[in-house]
Amino acid sequence: MKNILNFVDANREEMLELWKTLVSIESGSYNKKGIDTIANKLKNILEAENFTIDILDFENAGAALIGKSKYEGNEKPICLTGHMDTVFKDGALEKNPFIIKEGKVYGPGVIDMKGGIVALVYAIKALNSINYKKRPIKIILIGDEEVGHANSNLSKVLPEEFKECCATFNLETGRIGNAIVTQRKGCASFILEVYGTAAHAGNDYEKGRNAILEIAHKIIDIQNLTNIKEGTTLNVGIVNGGTAGNVVPEYAKATIDVRFLKKDKLQEITEELEKIANKTYLEGTKTKIFCESIMHPMEVIAGTKELFETLRKTSLELGLDEPYEKTVGGGSDASYSTMVGVPALCGLGVQGKYQHTDKEYGNLESLFERTKLLAATILKL
């Protein structure tokens, strides 16, 4: 293990240079060119590390990179995963360039999750430096995670890619305080649409059927489905409707965010939402509802506790703070691992705060600590 640690320490400047390079390539979820550029750069790096790499290209989404180390044997691979896209629009880099200041590293996507990609790459390099051959390592890096794979078929591809593995480590943003994510809520987005009848609010008020009034009743019913105790929340986050103050609105639309801890809960919530949609408060209105996207929960399954315990003991052996388990509300692609029975740990990337904002920063030293922890944990599996 000492040689792994020494390798990371000897390559600190090189790691920082790759971190800067990745952050300096704008790769918002709709910037296909930027995402594809990162995918091809990483392909070249990993092929030099004895990996076979495939690039999956999509017309309206950034590429995905899937690869595996060359290996002779029958052991199941260990999967390292993450995403190359960010939430930032083009131009964010000009206002917020990569910079290191007082032990913190700033820039768009610096921890969500380009720092994690650097840790992933250099954990592989460190293992290769000691000729690690115990198991193959599989890499899955995605170009449209932040938008839930809305414009690709990855929601179908990913379960098939994960199911051959024995364990998954997701290099998503690390938490300050050394929490390791062992469970994530699932997330579904629903669209509710109400159709009424337009009318002049002064001359023909009674002829109108107010779509906004109808959706207002339904919004209250939807919010009342929230059950904090069991980890289920519903949030109507966007409402649109109407054309002018003196017109009875004929159309209204609401976007609903649903979070849930167990996969089976989604069917129950869907049925309740359909009941609300089918109930009419204002005669003459019609309502439609449909699910726009789904990210399944990352659940604690057989093997999760053992995987965490290996990482916990390794962290202590390295002299790092003791990790603890955490459940979070945000989704990640690690959910596709647990849904096919492969235990996963998430949030193993660079530790920091304020991701998805222009204040996003990572703790510099955590890049090296997390790289060491990942490589050493893989060595002990």
TrEMBL record:
InterPro entries named among the record's database cross-references: Bact_exopeptidase_dim_dom, Pept_M20_glutamate_carboxypep, Peptidase_M20, Peptidase_M20_dimer, Peptidase_M20A
Tagged with keyword Hydrolase: yes
Keywords: Hydrolase, Metal-binding
Gene3D superfamilies: 3.30.70.360, Zn peptidases
Domain called Peptidase M20 dimerisation: residue spans: 183-284
UniProt KW Hydrolase keyword: yes
SUPFAM superfamilies: Bacterial exopeptidase dimerisation domain, Zn-dependent exopeptidases
Highest taxon listed in the record's lineage: Bacteria
UniProt protein name: M20 family metallopeptidase
Organism: Clostridium neuense
